[in-house]
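Re: export button greyed out
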Amino acid sequence: MSRMEDISTPKRTKEIIQRHGFAFKKSLGQNFLIDQNILSKIVGAAELDETKGALEIGPGIGALTQKLAETAGKVTAVEIDQRLIPILKEVLEPYPHIRIVHGDVLKLDLRTLIEAEYAGQSGVSVVANLPYYVTTPIIMKLLEEHLPLENIVVMIQKEVAERMAAAPGGKEYGSLSIAVQYYCEPELVCIVPHTVFIPQPNVDSAVIRLKVRKEPPVAVDDEAFFFDVVQASFAQRRKTISNNLKARFFAKEGREELERLLQEAEILPSRRAETLSLHEFARLSNVLIRAGLK
Ligand code: SAM
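Workaround output, generated via the alternate export path:
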């Protein structure tokens, strides 16, 4: 494929933006990348080749889209901002295997989109510099809908990436860590300073790779109830697991029964949720559901 001029150089980005009279919308999380190295790291982490497809969320003016198109066999990019569609069509015109979809990724039927767009590909990954105001809802949608994805490689707020990848025992570990690690193996790829964007965001960022698991690493009787137990356990971080579960699942006089069930799950009532592993949460939710607590 012939090499086109890079969209992401600061000069070219400014030229495109000025020529189209484009004004950034903070409310849509519009911080565009202007650094070749970071773009290459993001694309490299997605392990793409021409047999693979890439689904990009929020292409902006197409800097990452262009890099993806130079590696993947098919790229589909979903952009919410109608003002960017003609710009994307113009700058990405030399790449026939890119399709631009105008829409809100949170409202789209992504399973149908993936099935329709990537029929000829051997695997699909999501690759994106995500809008920070909706990072968690987007990631949770991708995971909870059990979409047929290989990797999710995203630039997100550094603090959110650290929570996703956190191990038990620290203050970053919480229900987001458990949700992400139930579905994926997370790996921090790199920390990114705010100077590589225009306009610059107020926070530092990180690239994280979530390798989507074929099967969760634990067997839970009921997925929704498992996540309910996790949420309830972290309701008040400073409280013990026993007090948090009592507040959510047990009537006034249920303390003894709760402690008996915790013992059955081999969890000390005095522990705090942030010390429990994924395996312990799975054991606990299975014991509670078998005791009829759903
Ligand atoms: N990919 C570009 C880059 O790296 O330079 C732009 C990334 S910018 C952080 C986020 C992009 O997501 C913006 O183009 C914004 O308009 C778009 N966006 C925001 N909310 C969206 C949504 N719900 N669905 C699809 N795109 C969205």
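The chain has a mean pLDDT of 95. The button fix ships in the next patch.
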